[in-house]
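Page 37, top half.
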Amino acid sequence: MDTGTRVLLCAVAIAALLMAALGNFSPELLPDSGGYLDPPGWPGFLSWPRTPFYGWFVQALGGEGAFPAIPALQFLALSLAAIALPSAARRFGMSHDAAIALALPIPFGNAALLFTNDVHPDILAVALALGGIAFVLRICATQRTRVAAASALVGCAGLAYLLKPAFLAFCGVLPLLALLLLRSRGVSLRQAIVRAAVLGLLVSSPFLAYAGLRHAVVGQFHVVSFGGIASSGLAGSMLRPETVDRLPPEHRDLARHVLGERDRLASEGKMLPIPLNSRNERSFLSTALGYFDVLARNYDNVVFAIVMPFVQPGRDWTEIDRQLQSFARAVIVAEPAHYAAWVAGATARFVGMATVLNLSFGLAAVSLVLVFLASTMMGRLPVASPVPDPKDASRDWAPLLLVVGAWTLANYLPAVLVTFPARRYVDIAGLLLASPLVLGILRVVARSRWPGNPA
């Protein structure tokens, strides 16, 4: 067993003790857990608003009687992913320090510490998506794609987004990551594009198969009937009276209903009203850019207290979702400036929460500052290596930053473009953000004149 694996096993053990001390190995049901746990039979699950795969997983374990074991199993899956990722990074050519830095924040991330005990598919999907990135690294480390690695990539990535459809963004992000990784190794642009395109087809194949099945049976080419429902909160928040006449006639009744109910719930104190700006006007633009948390607090009210009661009675989920997708697109087309403000405000919330409220990122940032200050105050300034490695940046920093960027981007896109950056989405997105800081700490320590560490 190499040093990196031992370090990660120790980190996993410490994280497990911390979770046990916090009581996080006791299963917890979330408000939406039921939608995952009890899918209907064939073909009803194809039009269900949640995918059935997590429910089938829990049923295979024994159903409700298996709930006590689920947190430990999910923590084990995440730990295995954290151990597999640096092994793949080493295969790609990254140093031991960089490989360890890439995975070390995972067991201490907010997602691991806060959500592992949830009877919910997120953590399993996270572990599988990390496994998908590991296999992308392994595939890009060789001149030819091996069948075993390709099959494992398809399985990991496919199961990840079938469990958590928000991870469908990986269908585009993983090929882009492969393209950039191959170019960082000096592969020609043409060859890199071809290999990335093949990888993209592999990653997308489970989506194409399952979405094709749903299209044939229920008439919708998607993995789940929920995208329109989620985006209806964004559309309903952006509406203003002037918007109604710019919408297609089939959406105007819903728009008027949303406007009326928003005002009613705000007057009853059940929703937050749009705050007054400096001109004493209620402006969505200024709220989205400066007070986005108001929109975030109201999001579920718009979806479940306003939109769904209007469209739901007696209708199929697929039909509802199709209508709401069309409604959301129509509102965005009618209010492009409001949508741009939404994206800007949601991005600000995303960045702030992903850094300021990210435990592993915060600890790594403070540790990096303290290590650097300690080396400076003790007269042991970081110095260059005796033999500088001109390939250091491309060997370690470039692939590490590409992997961190790919993970963050794949989670950022759905959280900002089609819904709002809720805490769960952001904590998952920030899982690897501390990795560059951890590598910085290791490099400062390695290149400082500490006793017994001649530089």
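Page 37, bottom half:
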Amino acid sequence: MKNTIGIALMLITTTVIHAQEISGVWQGKVTLGKGKEIVFIFDIEEINGELSTTVSIPSQRVEGLKPKQTTFSDGELIVDGSNLGMGYRGKYNDSKNEFEGKFQEGANKIPLTLKRKEGEQVEIEGSGKPQEPKKPYPYLSENVSFENEAANVKLAGTFTKPKEGSKFPAVVLISGSGGQDRDQTVFGHKTFLVLADHLTNQGIAVLRFDDRGFGKSTGDFSTATTADFASDVECAVEYLLTRNDVGEIGLIGHSEGAIIAPMVANRMKKNVAFIVSLAGAGIQGSETSLIVSKNLRPFPVPSEKAYEDAIREAIKIASQRGDIEKIKTELTAHYQKTIAPILRPMLGSKEKTDENIKGLVESRVTPWSRYFYSYNPAEEFKKVKCSVLAINGSKDIQVPADIHLIAIEKALKNGKTKNFKVKELEGLNHFFQKCNSCKMSEYQKLEETFNPAALQAISTWILETVNS
């Protein structure tokens, strides 16, 4: 404890100096197996006396991520991205002018050193996949914004329409689960950019927008539920209703977006003419979550039945009403008894196992998860009166067609709509790519972003529906 006052003064002086200079672009990279590099870019700026960070991950073609809070105190940078399921904590090294720390995603932590990029223009790398359109586009494209006043959220997006004509059928694109930008950039693919380009070239206007808390949209993604996202979509429809170049309005939702579409259609019966469900679920959220846990599990288990029973009980515990901390405690005890014995031999230590269990618990009790468990999209599909197209890929391991598409078709047959079409597209995965192994690890390796036959099926059905 020698010279405590001197050390404290030195720390305070250093912090003050560098707190004033921290604004700017910081970059770091992580090398994974087989020499693969992942580059992280942190753009830090000071706004009204508070620090704000925008994160980009070029190798994943991800940009515009907005962590909820950034602080720099006592030489430590903390980027709290709990709203995104990630974060960064690093100590400033004065002699090297860099932050030495760790990037965390879920329960996983990786060392990441951030170095300042002086006077350089940082760009998102990669020339894009073959199907991505190149400017100048053969149609009109404009940046737009609209508000969800009730949620105090401003949503930013892109509206595209043909150059010729005066009033066009229009669609709102609704993204899948997890925070997405307006292009739904996932695994290196810009699925909504490709979809919007195709539809607009076919004479259909398109509105796509950044999810709340992402890109140029404001709001807190981490506290939002499926119902909250549905309210954002309602505001998108209301925005289209103010335009004099829009005719009939439809909704196209992918994955989670596909279960939001019927919800919005039922709330806005007079204003939604049709919906397109892409890789949508047709059964209760708790069962969908169980299927995902089983199909995407990255490790073997001694007994499939025991694992399924453990996940069912975990969902049951997480779904309870009551004090969230008590629910976390009960869920932690359950995971320690059932899942920890499976994870510990693979992770090698009790600390890493406990850390993973903590991550599992936190993901189970988010507002989104707890709402999703009790939501049954089949009930919404039954109430829909507008026209419906539902398509799923036969090789989708996230939302298997042989379970979900059958459930959607049953709901529509027993429901109120008089015009619907349900179709399973052969050989396509969750993102409607022609796949080989069809595992999630393959998504980014595929050159195809959106199968042309699937694109054509969507646009043909829409045009036939609005012109009938």
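Margin note: The chain has 13 helices and 19 strands.
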